[in-house]
Design a protein that fits this description.
148 residues, mainly alpha
């Protein structure tokens, strides 16, 4: 009797969960970058053009449709220009992906250490070779000491 039965759905669950998490990660990154772009537009209006913002708001709330349309058109065109200038923030996308990849490697390394394999084959081989070299060096030193 097997300790664990192999089930097809387990592989599907792992694959589907990884797909969901990948989609979620990309969605969060895209939404964060868009939020940064909108904040850049907002900061532009508040910090650099507060007088124009007040004029736009005054014209928009003047209840004159002609003034409202002109103010809205001016505001949207100027905001769109700043939004397009803030496209530089999309350079964060590959940097964030690289950061998450490095973090994933660190997590997987630690998780692997908790499992049945404490070290990799290469590390074991290097430790064994180092130990053999030390023993051989001691043997040679003892052999030379015995000749004297």
């Amino acid at each position: 009797m097997k300790y664990k039965e192999e089930r097809t759905y387990k592989g599907f669950e792992v694959w589907f969960h990884a797909l969901q998490m990948t989609f979620k990660m990309h969605l969060y990154i895209v939404l964060s970058i868009l939020l940064i772009q909108f904040l850049a537009v907002l900061l532009y209006w508040i910090l650099l053009r507060p007088d124009e913002l007040i004029l736009v708001l005054r014209a928009f709330f003047s209840f004159s449709y002609l003034h409202m349309i002109k103010a809205l058109k001016f505001f949207v065109m100027k905001s769109l220009f700043i939004f397009l200038l803030a496209q530089v923030t999309w350079l964060l996308y590959p940097m964030l992906l690289a950061r998450f990849k490095v973090k994933a490697r660190e997590i997987m390394k630690d998780e692997h250490l908790r499992g049945s394999q404490l070290i990799t084959e290469e590390e074991l081989k290097s430790l064994v070779m180092k130990r053999i070299e030390e023993e051989y060096r001691r043997y040679r030193e003892n052999a030379k000491g015995g000749e004297k």
